[in-house]
Amino acid sequence: MNLAMYDALCEALMEQAKSVEDAKRPGYTTGTDDVLSNFKRVGEQTGIMPEKVLMIYMLKHLDSIRTLLNNIEKGEATQDPEPWQGRMHDIINYVKLLYALMAERELHNGPTPTNGGSKHE
Q1: What is the pLDDT at residue 120?
Q2: What does the pLDDT read at residue 115?
Q3: Positive or negative CA dihedral for 96, 97, 100, 101?
Q4: CA 57, chain centre distance (Å)
């Protein structure tokens, strides 16, 4: 795939992901202007931090992609009700939402520690 085809494909991917995000947002925000409210509500109900709630949702899509790839590798058909493209759109949107959750946490609590435990500067 040449660069022009790749760029066009990625541009279409991001446009489709944005369209999915816009269509799904009202169902997740339920009357609030906080686009992160779904993760916060479920986190409060379960005692899990919102970022981990989001990761659980995203892992569902990643696991479906893993199953798809395993089936392709084995030459088997996949029985997934959602097309792989939709899974990719959702994963992109979850990454954006996770970025926003972590940025909001830093805004309120200061820098998030890195893997080594030191503060990011």
Answers
A1: 42
A2: 57
A3: negative
A4: 8
